[in-house]
UniProtKB/TrEMBL annotation, chain A:
Protein name as it appears in the record: Uncharacterized protein
Organism: Embleya hyalina
Classification via InterPro entries: DUF5691
Lineage: Bacteria, Bacillati, Actinomycetota, Actinomycetes, Kitasatosporales
Automatic annotation (TrEMBL), chain B:
Cited InterPro entries: Znf_SWIM (IPR007527)
PROSITE patterns to which the protein is assigned, alphabetical: ZF_SWIM
Taxonomic path: Bacteria, Bacillati, Actinomycetota, Actinomycetes, Kitasatosporales
One Pfam family, short name: SWIM
Organism: Embleya hyalina
Keywords per UniProt: Metal-binding, Zinc, Zinc-finger
Domain SWIM-type: 65-98
UniProt name for this protein: SWIM-type domain-containing protein
GO molecular function per UniProt: zinc ion binding
Domain of life: Bacteria
Length: 498, 448
């Protein structure tokens, strides 16, 4: 706090312009300070000023008192949840300050499951981390509790927490009008969740001014809170000048039950597939791609050079509501998928069904198709445990080389069955003489995903010399680290006795 | 390697890094030595299993060096063309030996080149010669006196010319005068000059006042040094430490034991803070005697980029002898052998902001150049205000924060832990405000 001090201020003024131009003032030889000052040698003005400055400086320092009048602070609400053990708090700080961001989501998830609150001393680090890691905001807000909200109220940089707490991510209308694309998209999602029709009308107002790529993304965004009112808007978008928008609109309409689009596609689909006896499917691909099909988002020819009839067939099957087949075949997805398909069209039909299952998030169809060599993205439709089972089977059959994406999509920690499959695949790769660094991506994912209880198996693989045992030792080290981290949160036991 | 080391490590007593660094003739040598205190700098190293036996190392590519040190002297030699012992290689080797037992294995096979001149080495008196040591001390005192006289003239000239325009000077001017102080073996003055140089460059409001305050601090030290013969010896000790003389902790301990002045106590570890200066990591550890109630400060150093070897658990207590340096207001200590394991420590009793300012003033009365004094504050909160952070007591009295030495994160941590309710906080209060170091929250000591 700045307190007026004419003696010191005069010294500063004289020093600023230089004693060559201005002398420090004389003061009366009164009081301890004055008497001391009077004894200062005055042969050289610069020396005199520095002598005086040294004396006054010590005098000021010794005389400085704590100012009064700080108003009492408002207190935060009490958080009844217990805090994490001390060792877990120390670990969290290391994660936040070092390069431990890979393990932060797991730390947070374990603490939440245990019903603990975040340690207050690490709230500043957590709130700052979640500023850029938007995926962690919800869990950080939950663990931070009332103390986090209290703290965020003091620092505008943590306003995100205040907004989450208030259930108000800024003013969405304002963001929609003035934000950048990403912010507008987020605002649109919020508006759409609140009032789907009003949000769509807001979009219609700026529609013609939006760039084509953005129009396509906004059409996708209409997937949230779809209503019958969307149909006219989407039908109009089928005539958009940009193809990306037309394709997106067709996809959206295909997911809108009872729309004219769905009726048109269902009719096309019915014409393509029907039962052939008890165990076969009769396939009749479209004879041509007419104007109506073009308008509904089906291209005249395949971008990858697939034969025209096969291409049209696949496109129609993919866009047809899966419920149609239940009616046509009078059977479950499992039974339909088990029917034999004519070899020429088998791949197109299966691929079409699989795409439809992903698009329509149809778990029954995904399940029916997953075991039949269908594309791997189908698995994202399945519940986590089932997905892990399928990935485990996929890895057992095909190894790890194409499994990275699949593994990344599996929620962590993986079930032991999947972990075992991954370790089997590593062991096989090691035995085949493959280079360990070709698997470094899978190993990183495994380090985060494997259940730490598998560490003894990894230790077994790590025996001996060479690159593979070295890689397994690193993996075991990661698992031990995570096991220690979990243990610290749950029972406060340090990772290892030092 | 490790097996062999384990069997004989008891024989050779390793030094502390401080003791090694005390051998360095100047700051530049300390920096160069600490840069070589990495295992990568050496291709082969070893230490004799016999107490006082040689420590050796070889390394370097095109400019290969072979270094032998006899810690008993200490004496040594090196194949480098440097001006004599201890060269940067010898310092680096000793630091490595002090800090990283695995990097300098004890009992390794002694290469031929180590032993050859051993007889000659023993014949030479080396640094153990008291007359030589006195000559060196006199030479250094003369160098420092020359440096302080130069700085006196420089400061007077700055004030004669006027501070105005200093904000447009580059760092080169400050580095220039700071370098002169390093050459004059007054690294403490050099560090102050570099810190002062940052003030006008910041262009912050009120910089002339703060710059004059830094000049006045330097001036006070220079004037006191000039009249050191008239001062109480205890004032001179602190003065010399600020100018840049180092004292070997071992010597302080030995003297205190001889005189029976070592303080045996259980010490609560109040806080620990690391800072980097001139390539060295300096660790300051504050203690409070449970029985004596005395505050104490332990300094430990680590070479470039490495943590000092001494680490004490904040919030816990240790039992040890502490030898206080001969300071006017005793604070710096050399810590002797610790007995037993660290034990749980209670939350320390503290005072309010008003008493903190009084405690500093009282210490200042006895040692006028004290920058700060350790204090435990009780029942305070950290509050962000438009004019800066406040550390406020329940009675409304508050302390400003020394932002040059306190990070934003530390203050927010303090605020988060308090949640508006008072905490016990340890820190330093002094000329530039309060620096929080440790807070007690729900019975735990949390480093800020």
């Amino acid at each position: 706090m700045r307190v007026a001090d004419p003696v010191w201020d005069d010294l500063v003024s004289a020093a600023l312009v230089g004693t060559g131009r201005r002398r420090a003032a004389e003061w009366p030889a009164e009081g301890a300070l004055g008497e001391l000052a009077a004894r200062v040698d005055r042969t050289d003005e610069a020396v005199r000023l520095l002598d005086l400055a040294a004396i006054v400086m010590v005098h000021r320092r010794a005389g400085r008192r704590a100012p009064a009048g700080a108003p009492p602070e408002p207190c935060a609400e009490v958080d009844p949840r217990p805090s994490v053990p001390e060792s877990a708090r120390v670990r969290l700080r290391i994660l936040l300050e070092g390069d431990g961001m890979d393990f932060l989501p797991e730390w947070l998830a374990v603490a939440r499951t245990a019903g603990l609150r975040a340690p207050e001393s690490e709230l500043p680090g957590l709130l700052t981390a979640a500023r850029s890691r938007t995926d962690l905001r919800a869990i950080v807000a939950e663990l931070a509790g009332p103390r986090g909200r209290w703290l965020a109220g003091l620092n505008p940089e943590w306003a995100w927490l205040t907004r989450i707490a208030a259930g108000d991510p800024d003013d969405p209308i304002d963001l929609w009008r003035h934000g950048r694309f990403g912010e507008r998209l987020a605002a649109f999602a919020v508006l759409r969740a609140a009032d789907p029709d009003a949000a769509r009308e807001l979009l219609a107002r700026t529609w013609r001014a939006e760039p084509a790529e953005d129009r396509a993304v906004f059409v996708e965004a209409l997937g949230t809170g779809a209503t019958a009112g969307d149909e006219a808007f989407l039908e109009a978008a089928l005539d958009d000048r940009a193809k990306v928008v037309r394709v997106a609109a067709a996809r959206r309409l295909g997911a809108l039950p009872g729309s004219a689009f769905v009726a048109r596609m269902s009719a096309r689909g019915r014409a393509c597939l029907r039962p052939d006896g008890a165990g076969r499917v009769l396939v009749v691909p479209p004879g041509e791609c007419d104007e109506a099909m073009l308008r509904d988002g089906i291209d005249r020819s395949s971008p990858t050079g697939r034969e025209d009839h096969s291409w049209w067939l696949g496109e129609v099957v993919a866009a047809t509501p899966l419920s149609v087949w239940r009616e046509v075949f009078g059977a479950s997805p499992e039974e339909i998928a088990a029917r034999a398909l004519p070899r020429r069209f088998a791949e197109d039909v299966r691929e079409g069904w699989a795409r439809a299952a992903v698009l329509q998030r149809d778990v029954d169809w995904a399940r029916a198709l997953a075991g039949r060599g269908a594309p791997t993205r189908l698995l994202t439709v399945l519940p986590p445990a089932e997905c892990a089972d399928h990935v485990a089977r996929h890895i057992a059959e095909h190894g790890l080389s194409e499994a990275l994406q699949l593994l990344t999509n599996c929620p962590t920690p993986w079930p032991v069955s999947l972990g075992d499959a991954v370790l089997d695949a590593f062991a096989t790769a090691a035995g085949s003489g493959a280079y360990p660094w070709s698997f470094s991506g899978a190993r990183d994912v495994a380090g985060r995903g494997l259940d730490p209880s598998l560490v003894t198996r990894v230790d077994g693989l790590a025996e001996g010399d060479g690159e593979w045992p070295k890689a397994f030792r690193a993996l075991a080290e990661t698992l031990r680290y995570r096991a220690g981290m979990r243990r610290e949160i749950l029972d406060g036991e340090p990772r290892s006795a030092r | 390697m490790s097996v062999r080391a384990r069997t004989v490590a008891v024989m050779q007593q390793r030094w502390t890094a401080e003791r090694v660094l005390a051998l360095a003739p100047d700051a530049a040598a300390r920096t160069a030595g600490s840069a070589l205190a990495r295992p990568e700098s050496w291709s082969a190293t070893g230490a004799s299993a016999i107490a006082g036996g040689p420590i050796w190392g070889s390394g370097g590519g095109a400019t290969a060096y072979r270094t032998v040190v006899d810690p008993a002297g200490p004496t040594g030699r090196c194949s480098c063309p440097g001006p004599g012992f201890p060269c940067a290689h010898a310092l680096g080797l000793l630091l490595l030996w002090a800090n990283d037992p695995a990097a300098v294995p004890v009992g390794a096979t002694v290469p031929d080149w180590v032993d050859a001149p051993a007889a000659g080495r023993r014949a030479r008196a080396g640094l153990a010669d008291p007359a030589a040591a006195r000559r060196r001390a006199e030479r250094r005192a003369a160098e420092v006196a020359e440096g302080t006289e130069r700085l006196r003239r420089w400061l007077a000239d700055r004030v004669h010319q006027g501070l105005v325009g200093t904000e447009r000077e580059g760092y080169a001017m400050w580095d220039g005068i700071a370098e002169r102080m390093v050459d004059a073996k007054a690294p403490g003055l050099a560090a102050r000059l570099r810190a002062a140089g940052a003030i006008p460059a910041s262009g912050a409001e009120g910089w002339p006042g703060r710059l004059l305050e830094d000049y006045a601090e330097l001036w006070l030290l220079l004037r006191a040094h000039e009249h050191a013969d008239d001062l109480d010896p205890s004032l001179v000790a602190g003065l010399r430490a600020r100018i840049g003389w180092t004292v070997d902790a071992e010597d302080v301990l030995r003297a205190a034991r001889a005189e029976g002045t070592a303080v045996h106590d259980r010490w609560l570890v109040l806080g620990s803070r690391d800072s980097v200066d001139g390539g060295l990591t300096e660790r300051r550890i504050w203690l409070r005697g449970i029985g004596s109630g005395r505050p104490a400060l332990v300094l430990a150093f680590g070479p470039q980029g490495r943590a000092p070897r001494l680490a004490l658990p904040v919030g816990r207590t240790i039992e040890a002898d502490a030898a206080f340096h001969d300071d006017a207001v005793p604070l710096r200590v050399a810590l002797g052998e610790r007995t037993g394991e660290p034990a749980a420590g209670a939350e320390p009793a503290g005072v309010g902001p008003e008493e903190a300012t009084l405690a500093y003033a009282e210490a200042l009365r006895r040692e006028p150049w004290l920058e700060a004094w350790p204090v435990v504050l009780a029942d305070v909160v950290a509050v962000p205000e438009p004019m800066g952070w406040r550390i406020a007591g329940a009675d409304g009295f508050w302390l400003p924060v020394d932002r040059a030495r306190t990070g934003e994160q530390a203050l927010w941590r303090l605020s988060a832990m308090s949640g508006g309710t008072g905490l016990t906080v340890f820190g330093e209060y002094g000329a530039r405000g309060f620096v929080p170091v440790t807070a007690w929250h729900e019975g735990r000591a949390v480093p800020l």
